[in-house]
Amino acid sequence: MPRIPRAIVDEMIAHAREDLPNEACGMVHATAGAPIAVHRVKNDAASPYRYEMNPLQMMRLEGQRDASGEALFAIYHSHVASKAYPSPTDVRMAFFPPGEVEQEPAYPETMYILVSLASDPSDVRAYWIRRGGEVVEEPIEII
């Protein structure tokens, strides 16, 4: 069961609230399998219904991970009025090209964390998105 520091979870929730009315998105980096930092990424879709991470920011973060030896722990985004579960659009967008679900997802070793603002306190859950569009919840421990 992945252990995520409370400060990481709080940062994702704060980002989600600050980007209202739109969905927020970003990446969580890790070292030795432990999450260490939240990196906010611009939602180019600027929508309350979906997110598109800015590709230039994503590329810069990949370079930072390569230089520092960090790993991509999770991709996160918020749902402003629905539960913390990947929508059909979220699942389609986990593949490249989008919707090609019969292949491996773009980031097969990376969890997807959803932050729902539909409830108070916010609900935070993690998932694996697998070939075929299968969604598997990964229980997390907030420490």
Concise overview:
With 143 residues, the chain is of the alpha/beta class. It has three helices and eight strands; from the N terminus they run βαββαβαββββ. The chain has a single domain (3-142), classed as 3-Layer(aba) Sandwich (Cytidine Deaminase, domain 2), CATH 3.40.140.
What this model shows, in words?
Helices cover 23% and strands 33% of the residues. The protein has helices at residues 6-18, 55-68, 88-93, and strands at residues 3-4, 25-31, 34-41, 71-79, 111-116, 123-130, 134-138, 141-142. It has a six-stranded mixed beta sheet with strand order 3-2-4-5-6-7. The chain has three helices and eight strands. The protein has one domain (3-142): Cytidine Deaminase, domain 2. It has 143 residues and is of the alpha/beta class.
Mean pLDDT metric: 96
How would you sum up the major sheet?
6 strands, mixed
CATH class category name: Alpha Beta
Q: Helix content range of the residues, please?
A: 10-25%
Instruction: Estimate what percentage of residues fall within beta strands.
Output: 25-35%
Principal-axis shape equals globular
Overall SS class? alpha/beta
Number of helices: 3
Specify the CATH homologous superfamily: Cytidine Deaminase, domain 2
- In angstroms, what separates the terminal alpha carbons? 12 Å
Q: What is the number of beta strands? A: 8
Strand order of the largest sheet: 3-2-4-5-6-7
What is the CATH topology classification name?
Answer: Cytidine Deaminase, domain 2
Uncertain runs: none
- Return the domain count: 1
